[in-house]
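Per-record layout

source: candidate division WOR_3 bacterium SM23_42
name: Hydrogenase expression/formation protein HypE
length: 317
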Amino acid sequence: MSKLIKDVLLKYFDSKILQRLEDAAELSKPKDKLAFTTDSYVVDPIFFPGGDIGKLAICGTINDLAMKGAIPKYLSFALIIEEGLAFSDLEKILKSAAHAARTAGVSVVCGDTKVVEKGKADKIFITTSGVGVIKRDLGKEKIRAGDRVMISGTIGDHGIAIMNERLKLGLEFNVKSDVAALHSLARKILEAGSGVHFMRDPTRGGVVSVLNEAVDGTGFGIMIDECALPIKKQVRGASEILGLDPLYIANEGKLIAIVDRKDATSILKKTKSHPFGRNAAIIGEVFREPKGVWLRTKIGGTHPLLQLEAEGLPRIC
């Protein structure tokens, strides 16, 4: 284990704090409030079009901090490895994770590695935690009637890419996972003005789950315009084949922002100027009535978009 950590893991993560190999990382205390998050990643397959479990783990934790209005600073990175995983695969995952962290300017400062017997896991699982410095208070308590709902890009790319790869569907289309670290996009959006009230990345459960969580307990409802939804033709077609709704499919490189009506146009413009926000769109509005989340269809009707009661697709992240 010592040889694995020193010869393999530390080769990719070059934080001076991590190199000390102590039981805890010593961090400087900022003046601002801290955000702290943790998550585990069990995605199957571990390599998929557009990314892998290593990049996903780093970006997913960065995004959870960024959606809280925080600047990500430090991450932990813990591995549970099944006996028999090829060293080439492990190094590929570590290289990808390290590149994602380095590109984001975030330090991996502590971690852990365990190896379990063959058949006791599925290749590799990763658990990450993250610490960030909060620069803006965001939350659903700030949502108001008249606010606009914006998404930063196309919907459902990650889930469809994973399903096509995992289930060997053989669908021939150029849809890749959208996995990306969104901290720089989030910062750009927040710099556009004080009108940002709420941000969340629509991962498991997709857009509908995030919006239901956003208005739950607030007394407000959200109406989504079907004509405004940015969905790739390939994703829509694959969803129809599989009998799925793209609004419930996971994304790993998109964010939803609920913003003040008067600032919506300027925030959308700022979002579109970022590489990860080129396909951003205003997709809905917050209302006092009806409560819940609703879809206004292309033919003018409406129907409710209910929260999922079960996992739509397991091991998506």
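summary: The mean pLDDT is 95. The domain at 2-134 is CATH 3.30.1330.10 (60s Ribosomal Protein L30; Chain: A;).
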